[in-house]
DNA sequence: CTGTTCTAGACGTCTAGAGGAGTTGCAAGC
DNA sequence: GCTTGCAACTCCTCTAGACGTCTAGAACAG
């Protein structure tokens, strides 16, 4: 296994932090490459002469920093960082859809990574107060829910949930897992809802445990939250899209007129 | 102590997650107010009939989410959150400056909190490659640097560093700690640089130790980074402003035309 | 050759206990 | 009245061991 040195009992830092530090150095120096497996808990116990929980605590540190990903039954691996995606403010421009590409695919082409979507789930539910307000519907109205997860080079980078009024989505391909070329925005425009503008609310926070699982990140990686509301030319709110993105994988670009 | 319910052995989630969930609910519902002390490890052990490490693991979950702060020897406390500031996309509109208010003051008036600025430092330095590129200057050109920290209700919420080409700022009030009514954007427009647009790049990450100190936040709280570049009507880049904001204290709003 | 079963090794969860260090409040002593 | 010292309570670190689930590959049966 990788040579890591020994615990210095005169060091004021506790052993678990020293072990975490040695592993961190190995990762940052490239001795442990992205995707490489860390020494197993048993190996750390033997190497450093500590108990299992102490070895686990060291690994816990690195998980908290998002440097490693544990995989049940296989081992702990150095996290391969997803490529940074720059999201331009024109990413929903009609000209991208006209080429038959949904926004996510269009970006991937530009940035040169392999896009993917999985876990697409379609359902119907009654709108929560927040969603109803954003869609300007009476609270309790039924809405179509589109849940999905986006991948870049095979790694999850974003989960998104869209809400559309049933009145708009009912009986359209929007209810299908694959809504066809250009995505749901193309279908909305075909249905007469020519899009006029989007409003986005951007925030950041630590992920919930569910989100950590879905995005395959440790508890030390923050997420960007973007809530986008799409309005058509009649200023009708036609979609609310709630997205949670792996923060280090994104840079959002906006253009703001000075007026 | 606070009533929290019991562990459900038929629940597929492990006990530590159930305990964390109950505590999280208590925090989110306000049963445990900001600043309140959580039940001690001993209390959790007794209440739920679990071992010490299990109780600690539950608290560890909440620490990773930034919901609580442990204080050695005192207890674990619900993190007091600063008020959320919603930043509208028109926050730099000329009409706000015309009232003699800088952007930060105008927002504070609207949102009803007490604004403050401290640690204003003015200096000159040679532009780093990144800054020079954004200002479209030759690398190594001298720039004016304005460093400052913003407070909301006395708590720091943002640190900002502005870079301006010396050619533009030289000999103007922009070199003074207090640039006068309307802030530096008002001075730029007086100097003939009528502002046309801003571009903003938004990201999020964990803070560096320096930033944690300046923003008075503990580990577990992410920051939002916003890099804003201001362009005048001749498309000249007149300012780059690099800001680091306490993430939970902000919601950024943007309007994006569909084109 | 294929499909199943077994097994070793990996991480996940939990228990029970120990000593350490920081904080606080109270009681004893000055 | 003030200070000192102690005790109780807090979280921090570590140990040793148990059982569970998951993965992957080897061994086996058909």
UniProtKB/TrEMBL annotation, chains A, B:
SMART domains: HTH_GNTR, UTRA
Presence of the UniProt keyword Zinc in the record: no
HTH gntR-type domain sequence ranges: 13-81
Keywords for the protein's UniProt record, in alphabetical order: DNA-binding, Transcription, Transcription regulation
Keyword Acyltransferase applies: no
PROSITE patterns attached to this UniProt entry: HTH_GNTR
Signal peptide range in chain numbering: none
InterPro entries assigned: Bact_HTH_transcr_reg, Chorismate_lyase_/UTRA_dom_sf, Tscrpt_reg_HTH_GntR, UTRA, WH-like_DNA-bd_sf, WH_DNA-bd_sf
Coiled-coil region list: none
Pfam family membership, one: UTRA
Cited PANTHER family: GNTR-FAMILY TRANSCRIPTIONAL REGULATOR, MANNOSYL-D-GLYCERATE TRANSPORT/METABOLISM SYSTEM REPRESSOR MNGR-RELATED
Protein name (database record): GntR family transcriptional regulator
């Amino acid at each position: 296994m990788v040579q890591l040195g020994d615990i210095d009992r005169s060091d004021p830092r506790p052993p678990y932090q020293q072990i975490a530090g040695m592993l961190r150095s190995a990762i940052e120096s490239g001795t442990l490459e992205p995707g490489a497996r860390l020494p197993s808990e048993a190996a750390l116990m033997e190497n450093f002469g500590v108990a299992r929980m102490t070895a686990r605590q060291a690994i816990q540190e690195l998980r908290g920093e998002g440097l490693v990903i544990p995989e049940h039954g296989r081992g702990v691996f150095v996290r391969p960082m997803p490529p940074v995606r720059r999201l331009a403010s024109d990413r929903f421009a009609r000209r991208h859809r006209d080429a038959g590409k949904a926004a996510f695919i269009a970006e991937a082409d530009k940035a040169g990574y392999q896009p993917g979507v999985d876990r697409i789930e379609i359902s119907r539910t009654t709108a929560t107060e927040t969603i109803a307000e954003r869609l300007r519907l009476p609270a309790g109205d039924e809405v179509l829910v589109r849940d999905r997860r986006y991948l870049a080079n095979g790694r999850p980078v974003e989960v998104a949930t869209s809400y559309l009024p049933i009145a708009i989505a009912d009986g359209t391909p929007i209810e299908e897992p694959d809504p066809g070329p250009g995505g749901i925005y193309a279908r909305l425009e075909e249905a007469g809802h020519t899009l006029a503008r989007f409003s986005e609310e951007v925030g950041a926070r630590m992920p919930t445990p569910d989100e950590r699982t879905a995005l395959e990140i440790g508890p030390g990686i923050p997420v960007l939250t973007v809530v986008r509301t799409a309005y058509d030319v009649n200023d009708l709110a036609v979609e609310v899209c709630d997205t949670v993105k792996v923060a280090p994988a994104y840079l959002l670009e906006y253009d703001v007129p000075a007026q």
